Amino acid sequence: MTEHGGIVCDGQQVASTLQCPHCGTHFVSMRGSGARRAWCVRCQAVTCGALACDACVPVEARLEHAEGGKTRYDETIRELTAGGATLL
What are the extents of the domains in the chain? Predict the structure, then answer.
């Protein structure tokens, strides 16, 4: 996997991060850590594992929805918010 960012301490990179395609959160992925992660087939990327990120709604679509714009994910967003999910 390609890193999306890094954690720098005292001028030295101490960890690489990945970015969740659904919420934009950066996280450190460590093999065998036991942290819940998921693979989004549509985005072809690892998600952060948050329950809100199980549904494929990319961060750009969430932002466009918050700004009042139309996205191709509007139906999915409607279903999630009707179920009580918080998107941002």
Answer: 5-82
